[in-house]
Every structure is written in structure tokens, then in C-alpha cells.
UniProtKB/TrEMBL annotation:
It holds the Pfam family HTH_28. InterPro entries: Homeodomain-like_sf, InsJ-like_HTH, IS150/IS1296_orfA-like, WH-like_DNA-bd_sf. Residues 11-61 form the Insertion element IS150 protein InsJ-like helix-turn-helix domain. It comes from Paenibacillus faecis. This is Helix-turn-helix domain-containing protein. Residues 54-74 are annotated as: Disordered. Belongs to the IS150/IS1296 orfA family. Residues 56-66 have a biased composition (Basic and acidic residues).
Length: 106
């Protein structure tokens, strides 16, 4: 079994087209391009459902504010506020502890 490797978007398109041209022979395609069977199978399924754009790697990509729906924008704002509240709570706890330590000093 071949271990998967990193591929570019264009390579994935080429691999999928080769696989489809050869009667969806995933094993032959995996050997030919030195990628795993699972990668080929997944790319072909994505291609059949969403076309070439579905083969782009979107991991780690954050959406720009223009791409977010109103609900997503509100969720993002809430997360930011929750993070800020937690930071302020930690800061207050630290200051209280510092004051307590300073009071205890002789």
C-alpha cells in the first residue's frame, strides 16, 4: 500500500481525470501517481459531486468577513466577546492575588 503524499490542486485534477479515463481503477491510479487508494477514491467522489473546485484544499482557511453569513458573523462576535471576558476575568484574579500578597508583606 502506498502512503499518501502532498499534492497540488492541478495534480489532484490530473489524477482524477486519469482515474475516470481508466474506468475508475483506483488501484492503478494510486500506483501510477504514488498516492494512496483512499486519496484517489476521495478525490474522485469530491470531483463527481462538486467539480474541480471541490478538490481544493480548504483546511486551515478562514473565511473573510464578506463570506460570512449574518449568523456566522454574530457567532464570531460572541466568541470574541467571550474570549475578552475570560481574559479580563484572569486579569482580575491576578490583580486580586497580587493585592493579597502585597497586604501580607510586613
Amino acid at each position: 500500500m502506498t502512503k499518501g503524499r502532498s499534492t497540488t490542486w492541478q495534480e489532484r485534477i490530473d489524477i482524477v481525470l486519469y482515474c475516470l479515463a481508466n474506468g475508475q481503477d483506483y488501484t492503478k491510479t494510486a500506483r501510477q501517481f504514488q498516492v494512496s487508494y483512499q486519496q484517489v477514491y476521495g478525490w474522485v467522489r469530491k470531483y463527481e459531486v462538486g467539480g474541480q473546485d471541490a478538490l481544493q484544499d480548504g483546511r486551515g482557511r478562514t473565511k473573510s468577513p464578506e463570506e460570512l453569513s449574518e449568523t456566522d458573523q454574530q457567532k464570531l462576535a460572541m466568541k470574541k466577546l467571550e474570549y475578552e471576558n475570560e481574559r479580563l476575568r484572569a486579569e482580575n484574579a491576578f490583580l486580586k492575588k497580587l493585592q493579597d500578597l502585597e497586604r501580607r508583606r510586613p
